[in-house]
Automatic annotation (TrEMBL):
Keywords: Membrane, Transmembrane, Transmembrane helix. It comes from Pseudonocardia sediminis. This is Uncharacterized protein. The lineage of its organism: Bacteria, Bacillati, Actinomycetota, Actinomycetes, Pseudonocardiales. The chain crosses the membrane at residues 39-59, 79-97, 102-123, 138-159.
């Protein structure tokens, strides 16, 4: 037997398990991120998004009613609620809990798409305000601003991967 095999055979079981765990650490570290102070920005951003869904979006209807389909104001505001909740709220919480780089990257892209959806939703309500359509209200605008902040925060985390 070679010296390396003999030395491994002589190691106690606990040390062999520890050796296997230590050998896998570099791969685990590469897949994870440390948000640092950005975690607070993301947490506040998620709370802002949750608050925006509770505030009036269009015609006095809160965002959760637009999300649930109770209040129908066209496809763009409803699409924005789906992307806001999926990427801005649920994705951000999942990324902070797991600290996986891939999830942070998906949140950066998804929040960017949601930002565009939010701007389209606001625009679609503003161009029709003169013809009698209900204009956007504070919740819709706050949601678009909140998801924009999350876009840049997640992009900073995703681009910082070393």
């Amino acid at each position: 037997m070679s010296d390396e095999r003999r030395s491994r055979a002589e190691l106690p079981e606990e040390l062999r398990e520890l050796n296997a765990q230590v050998a896998g650490l570099p791969e685990q570290i590469e897949r994870r991120f440390d948000p640092g102070a950005r975690a607070l920005v993301v947490s506040v951003g998620v709370l802002v998004l949750i608050g925006s869904v509770l505030l009036p979006w269009i015609g006095g209807s809160p965002g959760w009613q637009v999300f649930a389909g109770i209040a129908s104001y066209g496809p763009l505001p409803r699409l924005f609620t789906f992307t806001l909740i999926a990427f801005g709220v649920l994705g951000s919480m999942l990324a902070l809990v797991t600290r996986r780089w891939a999830i942070a990257f998906v949140c950066a892209i998804g929040c960017g798409i949601s930002t565009v959806n939010g701007i389209w939703a606001i625009w679609s309500r503003q161009i029709g305000a003169d013809s009698g359509l209900a204009p956007p209200q504070v919740g819709l605008v706050l949601g678009a601003i909140g998801v924009l902040v999350l876009t840049f925060t997640w992009a900073g985390v995703a681009l910082r991967r070393g």
